[in-house]
């Protein structure tokens, strides 16, 4: 009798355990479904928020044959850091161009100094960062296409003021500050440290106290953007995705579509681990009269040799015909930017009476 009673009680307990387990699993499943549904809806909203204007055809890029990321085509993207404040439309303080070649499995990245002297369509000679202020993303892309002599397929614009939101959304970033400095009442010590959004903005803006000037600032801006992206994509940020999405939606604009971003994630993620940084070489800054300023201002420009070499290296990386007639769609050997002897005349090279800048 006792044995039968024990078996009956055990059977009832097992049924209760199964019911409880089933209930817990059901609650977890419902919670996960709700979480990922909200995640998907939030993602869709962000994709709508960040959609920028499409790029128009230019002489350098007629855009007659669109890039197909699902086919793993090579492409170029302009990364634009724009300092948009309440009192003005903003100038592009950070300009990086990346060419991506999945067949070669690498990315070539070049930073263009904001004081680079170029010809801007309908505006004449000016600093390259003025193109965005004159004509928004359309003129900025056109100017950089003409300067580098390559098509720009995509762009991603980041509002530098929005760095506060972006950095705070990922709970701060770790940076390695080379120089102690104070800017607009914000002090940042030398060394490795975790900084919040307010400090990150000043860290990315500081220029005059850096011995490397604008070049030093460009490196810090790249560091901040890279750290935000790395931390935003980490698994630890999933629980904070709503704040991240809100910050991205308010401060990022791109012409990548939702499906293209998905193709980018699926087909190009491994390529991003192999980034080669290219550098333009030129003489020291010098004084040059720019009508829009109404006075002489310090500008910078690369040498003909350096610019031509960089142009051809990027053209080869995009499988395009180069300015000297070369075509390369498979080889992983590109033109070496430091040893090229080509001295083609370039429309962006300025020949004018100038005053050399002597820091002494």
UniProtKB/TrEMBL annotation:
Gene3D superfamilies: LCP protein (3.40.630.190). The chain crosses the membrane at residues 20-41. Residues 342-351 have a biased composition (Polar residues). Residues 91-231 form the Cell envelope-related transcriptional attenuator domain. Keywords: Membrane, Transmembrane, Transmembrane helix. Residues 324-360 are annotated as: Disordered. Belongs to the LytR/CpsA/Psr (LCP) family. This is Transcription regulator. It comes from Carnobacterium divergens DSM 20623.
């Amino acid at each position: 009798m006792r044995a039968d009673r024990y078996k009956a009680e055990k059977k009832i307990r097992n049924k209760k355990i199964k019911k409880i387990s089933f209930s817990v699993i059901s609650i977890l499943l419902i919670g996960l479904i709700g979480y990922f549904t909200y995640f998907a809806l939030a993602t869709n909203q962000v994709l709508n928020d960040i959609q920028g204007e499409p790029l128009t055809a230019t002489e350098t890029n007629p855009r007659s044959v669109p890039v197909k990321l699902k086919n793993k085509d090579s492409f170029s993207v302009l990364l634009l850091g724009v300092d948009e404040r309440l009192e003005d439309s903003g100038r592009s303080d950070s300009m990086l161009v990346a060419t991506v070649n999945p067949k070669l499995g690498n990315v070539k990245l070049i930073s263009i100094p904001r004081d680079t002297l170029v010809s801007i369509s309908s505006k004449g000679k000016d600093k390259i960062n003025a193109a965005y202020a004159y004509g928004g993303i359309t003129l900025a892309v056109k100017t950089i296409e003409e300067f580098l002599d390559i098509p720009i397929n995509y762009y991603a614009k980041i509002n530098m003021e929005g760095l506060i939101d972006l950095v705070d959304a990922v709970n701060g970033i770790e940076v390695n500050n080379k120089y102690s400095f104070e800017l607009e009442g914000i002090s940042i010590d030398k060394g490795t440290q975790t900084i919040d959004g307010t400090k990150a903005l000043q860290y990315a803006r500081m220029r005059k106290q850096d011995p490397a000037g604008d070049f030093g600032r460009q490196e810090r801006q790249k560091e901040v953007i890279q750290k935000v992206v790395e931390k935003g994509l980490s698994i630890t940020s999933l629980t904070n995705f709503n704040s991240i999405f809100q910050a991205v939606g308010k401060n990022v604009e791109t012409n990548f579509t939702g499906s293209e971003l998905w193709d980018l994630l699926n087909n190009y993620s491994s390529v991003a681990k192999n980034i080669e940084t290219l550098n333009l070489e030129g003489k020291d800054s010098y004084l040059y009269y720019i009508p829009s300023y109404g006075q002489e201002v310090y500008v910078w420009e690369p040498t003909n040799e350096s610019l031509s070499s960089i142009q051809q290296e990027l053209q080869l990386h995009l499988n395009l015909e180069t300015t000297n007639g070369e075509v390369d769609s498979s080889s992983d050997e590109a033109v070496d930017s430091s040893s090229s002897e080509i001295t083609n005349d370039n429309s962006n090279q300025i020949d004018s009476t100038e005053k050399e800048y002597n820091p002494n």
